[in-house]
TrEMBL record:
Pfam families: WD40. Transmembrane segments: none annotated. This is WD repeat-containing protein 31-like. InterPro entries: WD40/YVTN_repeat-like_dom_sf, WD40_PAC1, WD40_repeat_CS, WD40_repeat_dom_sf, WD40_rpt, WDR31. WD repeats lie at residues 82-123, 124-166, 256-300.
Length: 350
């Protein structure tokens, strides 16, 4: 079980900590309900680069330290740890239907892992450069699409490990991929500043949205596949926006502006406070919650000293996990007061 560090004193947004153990743990967890932050020993020795959701209380993490971890943060314990990559892990994904974990790396491979087994079940080889993106076929996780800085997308059969198709687009250095739950489309962004829509059956581009001014770093699709979010790099407030796209009208809907540095991840939030919300994390050390309709920032939290925030996942219970370069992983709960104002309550750090 992870070593627990608990608050000794301080405000809700700036708590101090001291190590506790044994019978002191339960007492420490119950003190000061306004700042119930449980802090465990870091599970990675270097920057955390990617997260994948399992269920509330558990998350898959990938790091520059070349490891992949399945972590139960409710109990501060590792379910599994895998160390099979030769270089840093760039992306992780969880296949719920298969109960497997997939990880991409700068070593140009994708590996699959089974809980309880130390060695990879399969290594997917073929990309010529760092693998930067993964997305699983949502219906039964029978297929996977990977993307790389080699300008290629590859479609894999997860039962046989075979590459079924490969498609390359010039200067399409892939940064992220999202497979729609209705399986009709795959969204992909890259360093050519475009959002592309692919047909997963043929692995051909069926539409390119208007090119943005800055590199697009992440993409996410609504469950019905009707809308897509992307976010961009930038500096000093130039770029650094989140963009909402209409997949049916093939048009830009609106932009969410306020971050001052590169936005590393963005996503639609599932069923939070019965409101239509999105979230983003940035190299400016902030987590932001946005009203999807009004584009207003309705919640914000600064993680001081975190360095760039790299990835995020969200759960239906209103919790959000955020990864960082310098401060590990933070878990927040979204709270709504009687006036409808939202706040982010920090619950875990590890």
């Amino acid at each position: 079980m992870g070593k627990l560090l608990s608050k000794s004193k301080g405000s809700r947004r700036n708590c101090a900590y001291e190590a506790v153990s044994g019978t002191e743990r339960n007492m420490a967890e119950e003190t000061d309900s306004t700042c119930r932050l449980r802090q465990y020993s870091p599970i990675h020795t270097e920057a955390v680069t990617s997260l994948a959701a399992v269920h509330p209380g558990a998350v898959i993490t990938g790091s520059k330290d070349q490891s992949v971890v399945w972590y139960d943060y409710d109990n501060g314990s590792e379910i599994s740890r895998w160390n099979g990559h030769d270089k840093e892990v760039t992306k992780v994904a969880y296949a719920q239907h298969l109960n497997k974990v997939f990880s991409a790396s700068r070593d140009r491979t994708v590996k699959s892992w089974q809980p309880g087994q130390s060695q990879p079940q399969h290594t997917f080889q073929g990309h010529e450069l760092v693998v930067t993106a993964l997305s699983l076929q949502p219906m039964d996780n029978s297929q996977m699409i990977s993307g790389s800085r080699d300008n290629a997308l590859r479609l894999w059969d997860l039962q046989t490990g075979d590459c079924l198709k490969e498609s390359k687009v010039s200067r399409n250095l892939v940064t992220d991929i999202s497979w729609a739950k209705n399986m009709d489309a795959v969204a992909q962004v890259g360093e050519d500043k475009e959002l592309k829509i692919w047909d997963p059956r043929t692995l051909e581009v069926v539409h390119c949205f208007q090119r943005k001014q800055y590199i697009q770093t992440c993409c996410d699709l609504t469950e019905d596949g009707n809308y897509c979010l992307t976010c961009s790099n930038g500096f000093s407030g130039n770029g650094c926006e989140v963009t909402l796209w209409d997949m049916r009208a093939k048009s830009l809907v609106c932009e969410y502006k306020g971050h001052t540095e590169t936005v590393g991840a963005c996503m639609f939030l599932p069923g939070v406070a019965d409101r239509s919300l999105i979230a983003s994390v940035s190299s400016d050390c902030t987590v932001r919650i946005w009203d999807r309709e009004t584009t207003e920032c309705v919640g914000q939290e600064v993680i001081a000293g975190s360095g760039p925030l790299t990835s995020m996942v969200a759960y239906h219970d209103g919790s959000i996990c955020v990864s960082s370069f310098n401060a590990g992983i933070h878990v927040f709960s979204i709270k709504e007061d009687t006036n409808g104002q939202l706040s982010l309550e920090r619950r875990f750090q590890f």
